Amino acid sequence: MFKKQYTTVLAMLTVFLLLAGTALAAEITVMNGTSFELHGLALSASESNDWGDDLLGDDILKPGEGLTINLSGSLSGWDMAVVDDEGQQLEFKNLNFSNVHKITLLSDGTAVFE
Question: What is residue 24's predicted lDDT score, i.e. its pLDDT?
């Protein structure tokens, strides 16, 4: 009897953890809605002093193009930085990706969330 209850509790815990992990992961398309090419794109937790890796690598994100990224963990409290073709950095602060599947970056430093 104890073994059956233990197995049931373990199964319920496994399902809960899988659902919790799914709720804290998101696939988001970042669209270049600016008038310039993006030569770099990095994400960082808002409380961090360091940017993450350049998600574009050697690629360029032209106006109208998009890049799909996968986030895990908290979906709020993110900063994003992009670098244009002249090496100027534009930052988007304290982003919340909850219930978002697409973000369009605009030239004025704002973004449209869908």
Answer: 58
